[in-house]
Amino acid sequence: MCYGSMLQQTSTGTNSSPKLGSLAVVELVLSILKLHGLTLGQFLVTMFGDPTGFSASAKSSIWWFIGGCTKNDHPVDIVNAIYMHPWA
Q1: pLDDT at 7
Q2: What are phi and psi of 18, to 5 degrees?
Q3: Phi and psi torsions of 19, nearest 5°
Q4: Three-class SS of residue 72?
Q5: DSSP code string of 3-58
Q6: Helix/strand/coil for 65
Q7: What are phi and psi of 59, to 5 degrees?
Q8: pLDDT mean by block of 10 residues, the chain; 88 residues
Q9: 58: closest CA among 68, 75, 46?
Q10: CA torsion sign, 69 to 71 to 43 to 59?
Q11: At what angle do helices 56-66 and 40-48 cross, to 10 degrees?
Q12: DSSP code of residue 85
C-alpha cells in the first residue's frame, strides 16, 4: 500500500519527480514477496545463495554489497540492525 505521506521529493537535476520514501519501498518489496508466496527469509537465502541465475547487473550489486564496497549499509550494519532490533 502506498500513501502520499510516504513520498519524498528528491532532486534529480532538471527532472524532479516524487519518489517513494524508504519505508514505502520496503512495504512495496514485502508486498511483492507476499504476492509471490515468498518469505523474507526465502528471498534472502535466494539472493545470497547461488548467483548463477542472476543478471550481470544483479550479480555486480550483490558482489559490491557483500564485499563491503558500498558507501552506506555494509553487511555488518545489517547484522547489527538485526541484533539491535527490539524483536530480536
Answers
A1: 44
A2: -65, 140
A3: -120, 155
A4: coil
A5: -GGGEEE---TT---EEE-HHHHHHHHHHHHHHTT--HHHHHHHHHS-GGGS-HHH
A6: helix
A7: -60, -45
A8: 45 68 93 95 91 92 88 86 89
A9: 46
A10: negative
A11: 90
A12: S
Q: Report pLDDT for 76.
A: 87
Q: Which amino acid is at 33?
A: L
Residue 78: helix, strand or coil by DSSP? helix
Distance of CA 6 to the CA centre of its chain: 16
* Cell representation of residue 84: 539491535
Q: What is the DSSP letter of 61?
A: H
Cα dihedral across residues 38, 30, 36, 74: positive or negative: negative
Residue with cell 524508504: 22
- The set of cell numbers assigned to 79 is 547484522
- CA nearest to 30, candidates 39, 42, 21: 39
